[in-house]
């Protein structure tokens, strides 16, 4: 892509409800656009408070690397022709971080802002802003409004901002509408190489034993075997002690600084030439076998080719090597016994070590030798070097961990991989009415309904039984659609002729790529679609007969929502679908998957228990999968991954699974991968800059009870890139604006979440290696809403623990009343008389008391991420019959038909009650977390607020405060906002104990 061809396209759509300025109740408005020293101006719309322009302008982008630092300013003016002047109507400013490619652009309606505190504005301006790289589009400028000397750009770009450069932009054929003076684009700067530090050896220092992490609350303490343990491993050249890396070498940093460095012997087999003929036909079916000690890797054989090409990389763990000679053998595939062709030998002491960011080692031609070492005909191109998991060849290499148990066909199923879940949209279909329906039987009125289908999702409107051929529905049907939009929306109008018999009256097919997108709640214009009636001609052909019936629809893709594809308690992403609404990231989350110990055997191989495990981590749209460690109950992964964090009130989920696709039973793909356990970590509970190294117990609930499947060692670090933006997030709504302006019902959310999980599972299941459906469902907690007696009891006891403080306060007050402790009672009486005499001290005293409690609790703040708690989850004392009920299928198979119906109804209702009780408990736990330092930033904000409130209330008369509060609570609806207030947003972001629920 040529960077200096980048253009910023701005389509001025229209304005709405502008302020009248001409003294006659109207305005003659126009818009001026300013960007990067360039200005454009629209035409003037006379006497119109809701003008429509639909004019497009293109700006040159002088320096694409600084695009995110530029702003687009749009000013709306009223033109007064009589005196040749203009008056201000409003302005908007759009940051460069909101610019998106043309394919992702939608029309956004921005509320007009004031120019100064004395300005009076109202209304909205609709713009469509995008970046495009079509060289055929010319950019023209009206007036130069900024001097180059006046523009000062920062010399150092923050690390988090560099990620917002565009790597690929679309090239649509968009018409040019404005003819003005052209301005040449400035030179573009391109940054290519990324720095990777050189390889350093880590000294061997004995590692201290894991340290048990004690919980502050004794009531929630669980068995030591199920508790979290703090570790101090060597990571990135130093030992982690108390969350800080104590470096033992001169390394200042490393790309893989959260994992233990592992060395591998890499062998790249590229190709061969002039191999000797081994068959009677004068040809050879060659393949290569790479051997070192007991480990070997085999390439695929290529039939009848004396100059084959493989280009395969093998990786052998250096710590497992028990030989000093590497042999690369070329063999001829045969029916009975493979023939020896030739080999190459390498002494491991002479193999070079590659240190990134050095370029990859160039392969060389090596002459083949026979078993005696004498040179023969034929050459093999190889590259042999020693590297680490930071090597580019590591993810696609065939590892020696699987070389003894996995064949070449299944080797792709064990590789590490990064997946990106598809971007999901809510598709809203408003079926308004139909016109001139023609039923099959002319003598009756149709009982019509509309069936809407997209992929596997099917919804129907209610049937209309009115005596008319023009039925009216006006129903909203909601679906989930995923990019790319390669499916069609199929709507069919059907007639219920008889019970169980429906006839199609007409059908319309709408490609999803043609559906309009929107990012707010603006009304979408409706359209009439002609119905086509399929008439069967023969078995293999359908002829479509057009007739006069029409269907009135309003269809759009809603990008202002966040498509919920996971449990709301464990959401890893809260951003809306439309990229224009995304804000810059607030930090970076780094995860190092170190190793697992003491895993429970999941299968039997060679008469012994073993496991083939891999880890899956999910956060936002990015899913990662480590390589599968074959036949190992204590696997070492040592893989590191990074995510951008946009909201602290999100959860990282890490799961461990057993790969069941490697054996003979897994060849057909019907065997499910077994779950070993998972870990959830809420980002807001992590301190910034600290390295958390803990051993997490993998706890899974089985029909026989809770069971520990092993321990997973992780290293986690959350780095804040914008502290101000992170604190600002605590005042923002948890979900995008559309969830509050046009909310969904609980039933709609459950249905849409189910469809979203199915779409994500289907897309990730088509990758290579596939991320199977059972893995996606387990990571997304799809069964968290189903009825469980154990969960209901756990939520009830969570609720009761919230009121423990009130019960304790009541008991304490009872002791005061009975003079159990005379000294305390006298002090309480003195305090009570003082507060009665000076009521203005009540509120300052309460806030000051909470401030002191918060400061006192700082010393007891948690030093570890949350983890599964068996006692909180009521998993230790659960009854076997309750477990049988929890693991029972839905609907049940334990009883006759009548009992089954009642039982299923009870489970459905109880599941709702369970959710309500859990939500109430969550609110109480959030109250407790205000002063518990569970979320260190939230508690710091609240404690600071308490101190300021105490000072303000101390100097302000109580009557004034009471009057202000009363006036605010009874304020006029004009001064109310549809979005939640700042205190409510802050409260909803506080962490609860849902992260510790099994």
Automatic annotation (TrEMBL):
Domain of life: Eukaryota
Transmembrane portions of the chain: 826-856, 940-968
Residue ranges, annotated region (Disordered): 165-190
Record key words, sorted: Calcium, Membrane, Repeat, Transmembrane, Transmembrane helix
Name of the protein in question: C2 domain-containing protein
Similarity field: Belongs to the MCTP family.
InterPro entries: C2_dom (IPR000008), C2_domain_sf (IPR035892), C2B_MCTP_PRT_plant (IPR047257), C2C_MCTP_PRT_plant (IPR047258), C2D_MCTP_PRT_plant (IPR047255), MCTP_C (IPR013583), QUIRKY-like (IPR047259)
Primary subcellular site in the record, as a coarse category: membrane
Organism whose genome encodes this protein: Anisodus acutangulus
Record's GO cellular component terms: membrane
Function, as annotated: May function as a signaling molecule by regulating the trafficking of other regulators.
PANTHER family in the record: MULTIPLE C2 DOMAIN AND TRANSMEMBRANE REGION PROTEIN 7, PHOSPHORIBOSYLANTHRANILATE TRANSFERASE ISOFORM 1
Residue span, C2 domain: 1-110, 246-366, 405-529, 570-696
Membrane topology reported for the UniProt record: Multi-pass membrane protein
Location in the cell: Membrane
Pfam families for the chain: C2, PRT_C
